[in-house]
Amino acid sequence: MSDFEKAAKDAVEAAANSEQLALIAAVLQAQQLTQQQPLAPSPATSAGGGAAKWIGIGIGGSIFLVAFALSAVAVAISAVALTICVLVLRSVWQDIQNPK
Fold first, then answer.
1. Residue 66 has what pLDDT?
2. Which residue pairs from 76-82 have beta carbons closer than 8 angstroms and sit at least 24 positions apart in sequence?
């Protein structure tokens, strides 16, 4: 084998090696790119959460309305008590003003 044939054989092997190295480098870069890109967050889906939300709103609204009704009753009782107190004091005042 002559030096020319040996050099040609080495050149062919070097070309094959450089193609393999280029392919390996491309695969490694592709792997790095896929690992670096974060996955987009998937939209949150509520399976059956809609009904629970509306039940909670209904219960909260009911409690609010009951509390409002009880406070309205308390205001009405206070108004009646104040009216009776004012009428009794007026009667006592009239008795004091007009002694018979």
1. 95
2. none
